[in-house]
């Protein structure tokens, strides 16, 4: 990851939390044994919003449990909230969102940005074809080396041409609203396409959640006008055919409708739904597990959190290394009424499998004081392993390590 010469400083957890965790509208995606966090803003500053730096990408190492910050270069995007992000090979792709052009000027982004994770250089792509509408709070995923974007809230100019539905927001004077556009980007051709799909697609929506399992993507909830849905749709990515998922026979439990929630598969047919904002604009504190078989779903409530620990507009990712659900950011109230103190200041990690032998060994070394014997000059352990143990010790002692590597990737190992 980084040697001691790369350490910019070490700060306590409270200082780290104010930089990393206190945000909404950000992206969080898994890459190797890391979680990448970018963008978003912190609300509640005397009725104005503080956008996070778009130059910095924060990296959480799921093995050492430490944070690093990467300083990027190139054609850096504007500060952004509500964009859609995916990882494809060794690149981070960002589309849409609300871009902060100046302190008092915003727009819905319609550009596709690519960050090369090997050299940390941004490129603004200029694809052929019909790009998606400029919108925020859409969902995205990858399949067969292509990028998919669905839904969102924003402007409408080509819905009749591209064949998707658009519903105008009656409370907005600028003809903004919700869409159900499906767009596919092929990096090998540098081209956007609008595919023809079969079945009945979901109604327009934004702030919904989606995840891929095998050859299918599942979409749950989201907002359309005053409706916050609790429906689930599946798109067969081979056939491009939509199907609405029904409750399994004999099953009656179902989560209430919501937006700004998270939905992640932890196995091929088991997914976790957490948090969000309910139809009555009340934060949801429930965590559900769903099992999907033959386009039928069974919901099981796993538990609820106290009112002061509910999460809305958070971002989640399942670690490729530990299979834990890593939750970053969010607020404990409705985003329409959030204040600075409503932002969460800690990272939440939910394990769904037993810890690895490496994790257990590191914990034992730290807990039993073995670390002090390993730090002697005659220690035979490799430096990379010693650094991992040191970082684990700092985390245990309520310390979070920040590495700052300018224009150089920390993700080479």
UniProtKB/TrEMBL annotation:
<protein>
    <submittedName>
        <fullName>Uncharacterized protein</fullName>
    </submittedName>
</protein>
<dbReference type="InterPro" id="IPR015915">
    <property type="entry name" value="Kelch-typ_b-propeller"/>
</dbReference>
<dbReference type="Pfam" id="PF24681">
    <property type="entry name" value="Kelch_KLHDC2_KLHL20_DRC7"/>
</dbReference>
<keyword id="KW-0880">Kelch repeat</keyword>
<keyword id="KW-0677">Repeat</keyword>
């Amino acid at each position: 990851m980084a040697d001691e010469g790369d350490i910019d400083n070490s700060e306590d957890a409270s200082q780290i939390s104010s930089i990393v965790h206190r945000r909404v509208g950000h992206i969080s995606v898994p890459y190797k044994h890391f979680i990448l966090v970018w963008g978003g803003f912190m609300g509640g500053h005397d009725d104005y919003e503080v956008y996070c730096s778009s130059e910095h990408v924060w990296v959480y190492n799921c093995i050492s449990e430490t944070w690093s910050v990467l300083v990027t270069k190139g054609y850096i995007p504007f500060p952004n909230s509500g964009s859609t992000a995916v990882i494809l090979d060794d690149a981070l792709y960002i589309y849409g969102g609300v871009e902060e052009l100046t302190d008092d000027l915003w727009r819905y982004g319609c550009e596709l940005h690519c960050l090369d994770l090997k050299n940390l250089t941004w490129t603004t792509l200029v694809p052929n074809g019909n790009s998606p509408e400029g919108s925020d709070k859409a969902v995205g995923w990858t399949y067969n080396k292509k990028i998919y974007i669905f839904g969102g809230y924003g402007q409408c100019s080509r819905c009749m041409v591209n064949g998707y539905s658009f519903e105008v927001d009656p409370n907005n004077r600028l003809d903004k609203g919700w869409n159900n556009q499906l767009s596919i980007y092929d990096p090998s051709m540098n081209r956007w396409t609008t595919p023809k799909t079969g079945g009945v697609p979901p109604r327009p929506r934004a702030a919904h959640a989606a995840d891929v399992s095998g050859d299918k993507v599942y979409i749950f909830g989201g907002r359309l006008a005053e409706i916050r849905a609790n429906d689930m749709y599946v798109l067969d990515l081979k056939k491009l055919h939509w199907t609405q998922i029904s409750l399994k026979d004999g099953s009656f439990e179902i989560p209430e409708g919501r937006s700004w929630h998270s939905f992640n598969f932890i196995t091929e047919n088991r997914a976790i739904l957490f948090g969000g904002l309910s139809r009555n604009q009340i934060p949801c504190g429930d965590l559900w597990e769903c099992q999907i078989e033959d386009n039928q779903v069974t919901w099981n409530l796993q538990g609820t959190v106290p009112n002061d620990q509910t999460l809305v507009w958070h971002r989640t990712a399942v670690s490729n290394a530990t299979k834990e659900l890593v939750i970053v950011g969010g607020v404990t109230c409705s985003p329409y009424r959030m204040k600075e103190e409503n932002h969460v200041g800690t990272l939440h990690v939910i394990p769904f499998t037993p810890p690895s032998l490496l994790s257990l060994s590191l914990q034992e070394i730290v807990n039993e004081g073995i670390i002090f014997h390993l730090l002697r000059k005659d220690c035979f352990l490799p430096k990379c392993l010693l650094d991992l143990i040191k970082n684990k010790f700092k985390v245990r002692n309520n310390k979070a390590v920040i590495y700052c590597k300018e224009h150089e990737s920390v993700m080479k190992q």
